[in-house]
């Protein structure tokens, strides 16, 4: 189950479970759309993989207790910003292949 981390790891902006701005990598490293656009590109600074939109967990119990009321969002903040210049070098080493070819 996704942890639904509470903030962007780059700028610490709040990313509540319903935020359409939340992006995650396959390890659930979590960022806001603005940091992905402006700083990270489609390269997670922790694993080098791509990021994608974080799915939104329903707030209502539509079926089988699979909702935020039973499985709330995570509260543990992970704020570990990268230096944009260093990230540029890292992303440059990876080069331009799309995530499915990295
Ligand atoms: Zn951010
Ligand atoms: Zn990652």
Overview of this protein structure:
The protein has two helices and three strands. The protein is α+β, with helices and mostly antiparallel strands. It has a three-stranded antiparallel β-sheet with strand order 2-1-3. It is elongated and about 45 Å long. The model has no long low-confidence stretch (mean pLDDT 95). Bound molecules: zinc ion (2 copies). One zinc ion (ZN) binds at residues 8, 10-11, 13, 31-32, 34-35.
Through-space gap between termini: 25 Å
Rg for CA atoms: 15 Å
- The secondary-structure element order is EEHEH
Mean pLDDT rating: 95
Instruction: Name the ligand types.
Output: zinc ion
Shape: elongated
- Which spans have pLDDT < 50 for at least 5 consecutive residues? none
The strand order across the widest sheet is 2-1-3
Q: Can you count the beta strands?
A: 3
Q: Kindly name the structural category.
A: alpha+beta
- Biggest sheet: strands, sense, closure? 3 strands, antiparallel
Percentage beta strand: 5-15%
Helix residue percentage: 10-25%
Number of helical stretches of at least 4 residues: 2
